[in-house]
Amino acid sequence: MKLKILLVAGAAVLMLSACASMRKGSSRFDSSESIYVKESSPKVEVKETAKAEPVADPKPEPAIVVREEKVTPIEHSGPASKYYIIIGSFQVLDNARRFRGDLVNEGFSPILLESEHGFFRVSVDSFNDELAARSRLAQIRNQYEKYSDVWLLISM
Fold it and tell me: Is 14 among the domain residues?
């Protein structure tokens, strides 16, 4: 019985000594650490000089995905280029051909490329100048929302 009383008394002493509000000075309401003290911010006077037009918040341009691959043109006899704008990638040649037909109906002049990894890439434009390729890629993204995931292939 004495042991129970001793344990209860010890626990009570321990709880009272751990309580922050029971410590000296902790219950002062002018303490900067108290959650009850509200800091008043200085008043700032704002003078309106001219009304500005609201500026539209432009969406940041997504990064351009760039991959280096060894590719071979399929059914295309023109000169090879270093930079290709890829708008589609397929594992089955017939699917790439169907997609090429859809792109022709939209006004593109796509060519098919076979990558060293066995994919059939559908390119809508090709360049030997990287800056020109990136510019055209940005133009396609802006003009055709559904092709916003076009990417740049660098032929090795």
Answer: no
